[in-house]
Design goal:
Shape: globular
CATH topology: Rossmann fold
Strand order of the largest sheet: 2-3-1-4-5
Largest sheet: 5 strands, parallel
CATH class: Alpha Beta
Order of helices and strands: EHEHHEHEHHEH
Structural class: alpha/beta
Number of strands: 5
Helix content: 40-55%
Radius of gyration: 16 Å
Strand content: 5-15%
Oligomer: single chain
CATH superfamily: P-loop containing nucleotide triphosphate hydrolases
């Protein structure tokens, strides 16, 4: 993989999209874009879809990036420009351990996430909370992304964290080769 790098990283909430995207962007020397940070305004207000699309289109129009997130409203913009689409296709048990551990840590340390928003344990019962979202959408997302992967040469399925580490190692090697 040489030249501009445009990578979309998708997967169930809590699978590790943002962590992997940050590492990949660092290796490639390109911006990391977290769609949640654009979509979730202060007070957990959601950016209207038209504005969200404008913001993402501007970022996806750049020569290189790693974008993480699963927003159907902008999938055409991101995937349409992506050189590679990386799907974290992890087992439900691993995803659930990760999303619960992350939510507990965020609720305890009260560190701001996007635009000053904070995790609140009282919200864990809300249908759209990442813990419940990860549980309820896991199977559907896996089927959907696997179906997409079957017909798209740009899709890379990573089924385990070990697969993700191997992918990062290949990316690092490619980035070093391109820099020479």
């Amino acid at each position: 993989m040489s030249g501009p790098h445009r990578i979309s990283i998708v997967g169930t909430s809590g699978s590790g999209k943002t962590s992997l995207a940050r590492r990949a962007a660092g290796l490639l020397g390109v911006p990391h874009v977290e769609l949640d940070a654009i979509f979730h305004l202060p007070g957990w207000t959601e950016l209207p879809e038209a504005e969200f699309r404008v913001a993402v289109a501007a970022l996806a129009g750049g020569p290189g990036w790693v974008i993480d997130g699963n927003y159907g409203a902008v999938r055409d913009l991101v995937w349409g420009r992506a050189d590679q689409i990386v799907f974290l296709d992890y087992e439900r048990a691993l995803v659930m351990r990760r999303v619960i551990r992350r939510s507990v840590a965020r609720a305890l340390d009260r560190r701001p996430m996007w635009n000053g928003n904070r995790e609140d344990a009282r919200e864990w019962i809300r249908a759209g909370h990442p813990i419940r979202w990860a549980w309820s959408t896991h199977g559907e997302r896996r089927l959907s992304y696997r179906a997409t992967a079957a017909g798209d040469h740009r899709v890379v399925l990573l089924r385990t964290p070990r697969d993700a580490e191997a992918w990062l190692a290949r990316l690092a090697t490619s980035a070093r080769g391109a820099a020479c």
